[in-house]
Design a protein that fits this description.
With 381 residues, the protein is α/β, with parallel strands linked by helices. Helices cover 35% and strands 15% of the residues. Strands 4, 5, 6, 7, 8, 9, 10, 11 and 12 form a nine-stranded mixed beta sheet that branches. Helix 7 links the parallel strand 6 and strand 7.
């Protein structure tokens, strides 16, 4: 055991925020506190906490989690919980590396040896997806996800939905499954129509059919369609998740390990979901540390269904991708729709700290795109 002596964070392209914690014995662990479009806010939170938690026993992960949660008075929300996520993941990595075992061994052990995965196609303004879907199939994927629509008005032309159906049919014709992400950009008058239009073509799931602030609307859509409903990236704790489970309006829960309080909280959320017969499919359009953390939890959960991967995602434009910042990127090789469970200690990935430090110099914070409608109005991105 050893006391925490340092906490550092690194803003790196394309839009990630890595956290490094070291103890007095020289053990280190890496976490990811990425919060897309709000990097500076999370950095401010980490600045405020850095000195506060120096001197705590690095092994006391739950105690530190509870300190972060309960002694701040104001709790929850994306910024606070993303900062906590980075710390929590790093502490699990440090402890498991010190003990020489994968994190999943400390979470009760694995229940599977490989995990089903999916990748993105289409981008924010979906176009012809046939070539992209075939490329993913050639990479070894059997499932993909794509945005359902471009920006929409509250009440838009029904013709704006027809392209989504055609794109789903294109992917299905290749023998692949496809999840359709409404991305919270589709409002109820259009979401009802889109869910019904997609239903005969059997999407793998429909994601965020409405924003999670509209639980009554999500309940109504759940009663309207047989399409499995997935959501959860904007739910930041077990307390945020609970009303959706109690309402019976979610079939697939998608917590984000970098937004929901880290490995500790994702494991608790997964257990809650199992009690409600809800599948786990963690949200992760982020970096290799976040994905590795998801994998460690996925390996231990009976209700795990499928894992999102950011390999080649449209947000990773440029030189950096999921395979960056690590010395063993081969762990992300996809075969017949699956990746093998990593067997190395901690997160199972080896961070290239030299590259992290070099590319963090003068790294710009990523800015979330926005959509402007034809009348000059702001639309949901």
């Amino acid at each position: 055991m050893g006391k925490i002596v340092s906490l550092e964070y690194f803003r790196v392209p394309p839009r990630w925020l890595f956290v490094k914690i070291a103890d007095e014995a020289g053990n280190i662990g890496w976490g990811e506190a990425s919060l897309e479009g709000h990097t500076q806010a999370v950095e401010g939170c980490l600045d405020a906490w850095t000195e506060r938690y120096i001197g705590f026993e690095a092994d006391d992960i739950e105690h530190i989690w509870q300190m972060c949660w309960r002694t701040s008075f104001y709790r929850g929300g994306p910024v606070f919980m993303s900062a906590l996520s980075g710390i929590d993941i790093a502490l699990w990595d440090l402890k498991a590396r010190r003990l020489g075992v994968p994190i999943y061994q400390l979470l009760g052990g694995k229940v599977r040896d490989k995990l089903k995965v999916y990748a993105w196609i289409g981008g924010d303004r979906p176009a012809d997806v046939g070539i992209q879907a075939q490329a993913r199939k050639d990479q070894g994927f059997s499932s993909v996800k794509m945005n359902g629509t471009e920006d929409l008005g509250w009440l838009d032309s029904p013709s704006a939905l027809e392209d989504c159906v055609e794109r789903l049919k294109t992917v299905k014709a290749l023998g692949m499954d496809a999840g359709i992400d409404f991305h919270g950009r589709v409002h109820k008058p259009m979401a009802k129509q889109l869910a019904k239009a997609l239903e005969p073509h059997h999407p793998l799931f429909i994601e965020e059919p409405l924003l999670s602030e509209h639980i009554e609307g999500i309940k109504a859509i759940a009663q309207l369609t047989s399409c499995p409903i997935a959501l959860g990236e904007r739910l930041h704790s077990r307390w945020d998740v609970r009303p959706f489970l109690e309402a019976g309006c979610v079939d697939i829960l998608q917590p984000d390990v970098s937004h929901c309080g880290g490995i500790s909280e994702m494991k608790r959320i997964a257990g809650m979901c199992e009690a409600y017969d809800v599948a786990l499919a963690p949200h992760c359009p982020l970096g290799p540390i976040a994905l590795a953390a998801c994998v460690q939890v996925d390996a231990t959960c009976a209700n795990f269904a499928i894992q999102e991967m950011s390999l080649g995602i449209h947000y990773n434009a440029g030189a950096q991708d999921l395979t960056s910042y690590t010395k063993n990127p081969e762990v992300w090789q996809v075969k017949e729709g699956y990746i093998e469970l990593m067997k190395g200690p901690g997160l199972g990935i080896e961070i290239d700290e030299t590259q992290v430090r070099e590319l963090s110099k003068d790294a710009k914070a990523w800015v979330s795109p926005g959509f402007i409608g034809p009348g000059g109005e702001i639309r949901e991105w």
